[in-house]
Amino acid sequence: MNVLVWTLVAPMVTAAIGGLPGPRRLKEATLVSGLAVTFLLCIATARQFLEGSPPSAFADALRVDGLSALVLVLCGLVGLLSGTYGVGYLRRNEARGLVTPRLRREFYGLIPAYVFAMLLVSVSNNLGVLWIAVELTTLASVFLITFHDRDTSLEAGWKFLVLGSLGLAFALLGTVLMFAAGRSDLGEGMVALHWTRFMEVAPELHPFTLRLGVVFALIGYGTKAGLAPMHTWKPDAYREAPSPAVVLMAVGMLNGALYCVLRIHLISKAALGPEFSSGLLLTLGLLSVAIATPFILIQWNLKRLLAYSSIEHVGIMAVGVGLGAEAGVFGALLHMTYHSLAKPLALFSAGTLGQLHRSSDFDRIRGGTFSRAPIASSLFVLSAVIMTGSPPFGLFFSEMTILKAGFFGSHVTATSVFLGALVVLFCGFAYQVGHLVLGSPREFTEDAPDPERFDVGMATAVVSAVIAVVSAFYLPAPLIALIRAATEVVWGGA
Amino acid sequence: MDTLLAFAAALLQAGVMLAVAPLLKTVIKKMKARLQNRKGPPLLQGYYDLLKLLQKEPVRSETASWIYVAGPRVYFAAAVAATTLVPVLFAAAPLEAAGGILLLVGTLALGRFALATAALDTGSPFGGMGASRDMTIAALAEPALMLGLFASALAAGSLSLGVMVRGLLQQGLSFHPSDLLAFAGLFIIVITETGRIPVDNPATHLELTMIHEAMVLEYSGPDLALVEWASALKELLYLTLLVDLFLPAGMATSVAPVALLVALLAWAGKIFVLAILVTVAESTNAKLRLFRVPELVSVSLGLAFLALAIRFL
Amino acid sequence: MTVNVLILCAAGMLVSAFLMVGQKALFTAIRLYGAQSLLLAIVAATIAISEGRHELLVTAALTMALKGILIPWFLMRTVDRIGIHREIEPFLNVPASLLICLGLTVIGYRVSTGFQEGSRGVSHHLIGVALSILLIGLFLMVTRRKAITQILALLTVENAVFLVAVGVTTGMPLIVELGISFDVIVAVLILGILVHRIVDRFESMDVSRLSNLKG
Predict the structure, then answer these.
(1) For chain B, which residues make up each domain, given as ranges?
(2) Which of C175, C183, C194 has the CB atom closest to A158's CB atom?
(3) B136 HSE (CA, 13 A, CB side)
(4) To 10 degrees, the CA torsion angle through A270, A276, A278, A281?
């Protein structure tokens, strides 16, 4: 069995063990070690790719190229961070008596299952397996969203599943139509649905059918990525799900869905020329950034704020790819990397604040959190600075790259609109965060927030802070090589 | 000479239809009864009822005028006239030179108008209520009927039923999705026009739930016999129309006795199958409330319109 | 002969979709969905037999068993347990809904003319019907308020996608088909569980009450 298969088996086994009953310490240790092993295996797979012998499995149904390797490594990292934070998160909830053994089993089983599904997405070469993997992520995350079993959790879970299934039905239709476009040329059996096969026969695909299929597939997978106008499930899902699961959604699933979008985009580029899907991606990206802006300004909940920030960032990535220049693509993939390295910090610190105050609504938290929870607050402010794209942090550089590609390319008006939205977003986000963290501390008449403690969750948050800050100044060379390889795939289409 | 022959054939066809119509009604009643685990009436009950009514003395309201007397007679005459425009056993209608679909629908509408006006003439509130209800439903059902018929007419290129049937016989068995849509739409219209569940309950005794029955509440004796017979005839006519437009295979193209016999058997068999469909539709649905009936008829209208649209897309 | 059967079944699916729009009783709507899936299975089986593609027979059997029998049974059991049997007044009344569905069908058929004509000669009709059913399913999802009807609308959309897959392509690889069916089943099961929880919590299946989260 090659390293790729092991990379997928590891989280599956962790999920199976997590679903069994057992002593708490043992379960925690299994979760963290299982996810750590997964992460190391992801790195090993990427390393094998960089050394020139990309692993593949099941007759090329799973295949690792530059884009896959990058997404794989990022998902593995965020899986590990999520698991560690999750341990601290559950401990805190357990101290308040909110966690039953069944809920604990659900959590320890679903988190690695989610990681497995995400990893499967990132290495799928077969469009059918890709769809099934994305559906698996949806199914794995539903019960994570309804974890707390509140009224609003049910609402969020329902909307998530219905909208997600609808989006996936569209994606399936798109896949079927794309398959139909190349009926005679693609051949028989599993190979016929391989992405590599599609790229080979791209010029012979029937244009009308392919166009229709690409539109449906982009809308479908765009729903999972959270591109507007299919983003409405995101804010609710982020608010209701426990923060460790939200990290997986915000980074892992976002990257995974973007991966699907990029694969479709590449087929469309090879068959129909770059303008069609680039135009679609540009529109969807601009729409996402534009829609996120007003909602951030009127936001009332911490995690929904971060959801709209996610929507903004995936919009930026879509714009980067949609601009149709190599620098834009590089900027988008760089943005994806920095986003994956910085988002956990934001969610961990916000999640800690929310847990301490028993709610992430602003009117429960508002006012002077700095005095009550100094570490978490300062981490949150740091994350806000990073996420809004301030120098000298990484997201600033990726956004600049994209802007440069836009202004020097042919989409000057679009880029100006984009720049304007980014500026407004920066101000809005800063306003909300400042309002929350600074100011005189509020008196709590009842339900006082818990005092801050340095436990596993906090430690994870600090580690993610270190990662976010260090990555601004130094990215390990293999990671840079991966980003370059991914750019080659997305720009060259090979 | 030709017109004489045509009239003779028309009389013959009308006679045959009139003879078979009460049988159809009783067959449906019996099948419904069987589905409800009852025995149902004997098969000749329809004829017995008509005989009984014809022998009785009519009781007429003193305030009613000649319209009241003329109503059932015009209704009956219209129904009989309509049967002469429809091909039954032979791939041509006896009086098809007189007109096609539009004349058919118009004739049936004339009958309905006469009956409704007569119902108003008695001055009884139930008569007025039944007439207004029936006319409301007819306002929706007739366009649906026409659209459904037009769908087939446009495909055949003519409004004459005889030409349509002959064209269908020639091209053999080949379906188009619009055929099924038109059939579904027209089937709903048949249920509506013949006053069956889920539109109207023919066996109800509660006046406030009646639509068609309320119109004829005042009639007795020969008047009622004429109305009942004409209703049964209309039912047979509609089912024959369905057979003509969607499954005309087996109709006689020549006057040879063998061909006519085959056509008779085929026609009887198809009408029986359609009767089963009607029975099933009646037995598996509950009667709709009055203001829901337009919804059902608009479904039929939609299906008919779609059949028309799809044929040309 | 094959062509006739295919066209009849596809038209039957379209009629069932229309009847679902005009339907208020939940049980009948579920049965209509079952009938639609059965017709879909017949389409798959007919294509399988006439073209000798035996994997499609497995898919047809799977469709008949899962979507024609199992899922309707599960949904009817859910409705029974909950005890709510009728759809409440939807956002749009029936005649207006029908008019809109008419327009959607015309659009669906219009779009289908752009496809390449397949070797069977019926692709035009199959895709037209499939796209129309897709649009009608979407319309149902937007205008209906009961959770069960939204699930039915989603399943109708899936049926439409499957019809395109079976009618236009040579059928997807069997493993993929199995995976997709498994996913659909699990999704329906989870939706059923969520409906139970929603009714327990909100005392009603009215999805428009799930509107606390805004902004």
Answers:
(1) 2-310
(2) C194
(3) 14
(4) -120
In chain C, domain spans = 2-206
Using CA atoms, how far residue C174 sits from A133, B244, C54, C179, C180, in Å, is 16, 44, 10, 9, 10
pLDDT at position B165 is 87
Would you call A180 and C215 a contact, using CB atoms and an 8 Å cutoff?
no
Per-residue pLDDT at A450 exceeds 80: no
Compare CB distances from A193 to C158, C172, C212 and report the shortest one's residue.
C172
> Could you give phi then psi for residue C146, rounded to 5 degrees?
-85, 140
CB A320 within 8 A of CB A289: no
Contact criterion met (CB < 8 Å) for A169 and C201: no
**CB within 8 A of A239, min separation 6: which ones?**
A152, A156, A301, A303, A304, A307, A360, C213
Say if CB A216 and CB A171 are below 8 A apart.
yes
Nearest to C19 among B174, B179, B299 (CB): B299
Alpha-carbon span B11 to B3, nearest angstrom: 12
Count of positions (residues) in chain A: 494
Radius of gyration of chain B (CA): 19
Say if the Cβ atoms of B174 and C95 lie within 8 Å: no
Structure token pair of residue B188: 């709903």
Place of tokens 């969610």: A347
Beta-carbon separation of B309 and C4 below 8 A: no
- C4 and B174: CB-CB below 8 Å? yes
The structure tokens 């118009």 sit at B106
ipTM of the complex: 0.90
Whether A308 and A316 have beta carbons less than 8 Å apart is answered as no
Chain C environment of B306 (Cβ under 8 Å): 18, 102, 105-106
Chains B and A touch (3+ CB pairs under 8 A): no
pLDDT digits (tens, 9 = 90+) for C91-125: 777 778 888 998 998 888 888 877 765 545 677 78
Which of A134, A136, A163, A168 best probes binding to C when mutated, by most C CB atoms within 10 angstroms? A168
Judged against a pLDDT cut of 60, whether residue C162 lies above it is answered with yes
Against chain C, the chains showing at least 3 CB pairs within 8 Å are A, B
Neighbours of B313 (CB within 10 A): 17
pLDDT of A192: 78
> Which C residues, 52 through 111, put their C-beta within 8 Å of a C-beta on chain B?
93-95, 98-99, 101-102, 105-106, 109-110
